Amino acid sequence: MKLFKVYPQLDLELTKAQGCYIYDRSGAQYLDLYGGHAVISVGHTHPHYVKRIKEQLDAIAYYSNAVINPVQHSLLDKLGKISGYDAYQLFLCNSGAEAIENALKIASFHTQKDKLVAFNKSFHGRTSRALSVTDNDKYRSRLDKYSNVQFLEMNLNAVESALKNQDVCAVLIEGIQGLAGIYMPEADFLPGLKQLCEKYGALLVVDEIQSGYGRSGKFFAHQHADVQPDLITVAKGMANGFPMGGVLISPKIEGWFGMSGSTFGGNHLACVAALATLEIIENEKLVENAQKVGAELIEALRAIPEVKEVRGAGLMIGVEFDFPVKDIRENLMKEQHVLTGMAANPNVIRLLPPLTLTQEQAALFVEKLKLSIQKISSDAAVLIGK
Ligand SMILES: Cc1ncc(COP(=O)(O)O)c(C=O)c1O
């Protein structure tokens, strides 16, 4: 059998990972500034994470939501406390796209409306409804283009015009736009959005699948602004690589039996992975670490003359150049042994390292990036005969 060809793959076969490092089959070490796409929040194979999962496997790995699951309750307590959303409710599922599907469905049930507002350059996942609010035609089949979605600039006047008919159930926005190339909404945009949603009877859904769980230097990226969304979607860093997603739901929204469901969602093993992740985030003060190391890293990157712009917060960083970054990223991987992420904007390197990244590792990355830039520039000079 062959793998269905939907992923362009790097020429890299991993056999081991630890902390912020990954190792290929020859034993060569790579610094991981990509985190498997913002998934590895507490570092690879963290001993506490491994221990908790092994112990849970020995006790009970899975049972459905038909029974009381004490690990789920521990997770609710811990997430409520760390996120500041103790009063909210939690629905558990298995991926980011599934979290988006559920958030939108819950918004529609609650408001009894069926129109959606999303933003230009957004990415919310690969299932059909998640694609309907994703601003990229390449990813959408004919089945995924719904006429009840409007894509807007991040402009409050445009949003108000779209909401005026009072037929929109949800306005959906990423805490920080990730795949687009790391774009943060302006400071007063989210509070303005919430006010408009309240005025016209829509719910504000913030997608924190990539930007949440401490990545931006706050637990949620929207907490950089003074706003409380009605629904918050989470996944990726939530369980450090164990497949899991969730929706945090305002207490004003009431659930009813059958409103949603998932066979695997919130099972014992997934919950313990999520719980161990939060325990490590709390014990090792990783939100604070992301804030501190991220701020230093952003400053050091801004000082590199070839860098056009650095955007983001905490350890969710976009480094933009005046030219496509493909060759720099390839050199970083092959010669400097550093993995980085790409973005829809071809001129942007996306950095999404584990939140355990140290100041030394961040400084090492900056040195390696400078070497790669030099190498690419000298190769280009040779090519054009300078
Ligand atoms: C902001 C955002 N929303 C949703 C998703 C979809 O998550 P998943 O791939 O777990 O379905 C992603 C994944 O990259 C994302 O970055």
Automatic annotation (TrEMBL):
Keywords: Aminotransferase, Pyridoxal phosphate, Transferase
Alphabetical list of Gene3D superfamilies matching this protein: Aspartate Aminotransferase, domain 1 (3.90.1150.10), Type I PLP-dependent aspartate aminotransferase-like (Major domain) (3.40.640.10)
The keyword Acetylation belongs to this UniProt entry's keyword annotation: no
A Pfam family that the UniProt record links to this protein: Aminotran_3
Protein origin, superkingdom: Bacteria
Family of the protein in this entry: Belongs to the class-III pyridoxal-phosphate-dependent aminotransferase family.
GO molecular function list: identical protein binding; pyridoxal phosphate binding; transaminase activity
Cofactors demanded by this protein: pyridoxal 5'-phosphate
PROSITE patterns named among the record's database cross-references: AA_TRANSFER_CLASS_3 (PS00600)
InterPro entries: Aminotrans_3 (IPR005814), Aminotrans_3_PPA_site (IPR049704), Class-III_PLP-dep_AT (IPR050103), PyrdxlP-dep_Trfase (IPR015424), PyrdxlP-dep_Trfase_major (IPR015421), PyrdxlP-dep_Trfase_small (IPR015422)
Species the sequence originates in: Fulvivirga marina
Protein name: Aspartate aminotransferase family protein
Keyword Transmembrane helix: no
